[in-house]
């Protein structure tokens, strides 16, 4: 269903963002993770579209969205900038208030979106992450082995970009295939789309700049919010895979309680790629949460 929807582009925040939209009801922004694109939601879109107006977008640097170069000494991929992209996209589409469902890198963008545009975000579901600042501060051997790419991708350009561009398909399988479920959850059609987009000019650079920002300017922004007692104030659900590194290396609920005021969450019996490994379980949690009326 997702692949049959018209692919659209909108100029926001001085770049072009690729997205598809479908459904009826309250607006729901859906943001993907690394090294994927918006097609990762294909198993849950048909059901969600019955209840929500979906805006399914590619983050800057990923998919068919623009991949701008960062100015000298600055980052064009801070989560603040990436969140601004999505805020402007939703406003342009007529959604001044909306909920967010986001995975992995998209969930880090969503976290910043809820902080910087609190009046716009009604509810939020974040999949398989702990707060970025907590994860870097608590890095240990087990986490470094599981999330090795976090530390490779932040090396200065062009070293990691060259490695990715040499064999994008190998890189994709080296990241996705070593997780608990291997490559089994991914359809051939979805994999082909992930590989296509990973091989586009500028994608390797955009991915690395995303991670470089998370190990730099994003940590500064997150620390400032903690110092200023500026938590996520919308209803927040966090879900993570019981078979993944988030469960094994962190205490997600404890960490999210430090930065969010209205929190619920739990581990699901799957790995990192929840929307593709356990779509029905995900829908069973997300739909009631997003459909309920906030008090």
Automatic annotation (TrEMBL):
GO terms for cellular component: membrane. Its EC number is 3.8.1.3. Keywords: Hydrolase. Gene3D superfamilies: alpha/beta hydrolase. One of its GO terms (molecular function) is haloacetate dehalogenase activity. Pfam families: Abhydrolase_1. InterPro entries: AB_hydrolase_1, AB_hydrolase_fold, AB_hydrolase_sf. Residues 26-151 form the AB hydrolase-1 domain. It comes from the Bacteria. This is Haloacetate dehalogenase H-1. It comes from Leminorella richardii. The lineage of its organism: Bacteria, Pseudomonadati, Pseudomonadota, Gammaproteobacteria, Enterobacterales.
């Amino acid at each position: 269903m997702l692949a049959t929807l018209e692919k659209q582009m909108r100029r926001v925040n001085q770049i072009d963002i690729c997205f598809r939209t479908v459904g009826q009801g309250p607006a729901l922004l859906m943001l993907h993770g690394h090294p994927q694109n918006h097609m990762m939601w294909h198993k849950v879109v048909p059901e969600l579209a019955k209840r929500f107006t979906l805006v399914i977008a590619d983050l800057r640097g990923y998919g068919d969205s623009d991949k701008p170069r960062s100015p000298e000494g600055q980052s064009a991929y801070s989560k603040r900038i990436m969140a601004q992209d999505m805020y402007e996209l939703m406003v342009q589409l007529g959604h001044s208030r909306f909920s967010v469902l986001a995975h992995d890198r998209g969930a880090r963008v969503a976290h910043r979106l809820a902080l910087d545009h609190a009046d716009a975000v009604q509810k939020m579901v974040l999949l398989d992450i702990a707060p970025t600042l907590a994860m870097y501060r608590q890095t240990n051997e087990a986490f470094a082995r599981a999330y090795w790419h976090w530390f490779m991708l932040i090396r200065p350009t062009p070293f990691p970009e060259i490695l990715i561009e040499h064999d994008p398909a190998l890189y994709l399988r080296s990241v996705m295939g070593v997780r608990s479920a291997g490559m089994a959850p991914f359809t051939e059609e979805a994999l082909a789309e992930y590989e296509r987009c990973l091989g586009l000019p500028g994608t390797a650079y955009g991915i690395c700049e995303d991670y470089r920002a998370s190990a730099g300017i994003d940590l500064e922004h997150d620390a400032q919010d903690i110092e200023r007692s500026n938590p996520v104030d919308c209803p927040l659900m966090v879900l993570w895979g019981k078979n993944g590194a988030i469960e094994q290396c962190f205490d997600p609920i404890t960490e999210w309680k430090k930065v969010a005021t209205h929190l619920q969450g739990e581990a699901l019996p799957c790995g990192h790629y929840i929307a593709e490994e356990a779509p029905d379980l995900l829908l069973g949690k997300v739909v009631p949460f997003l459909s309920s009326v906030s008090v």
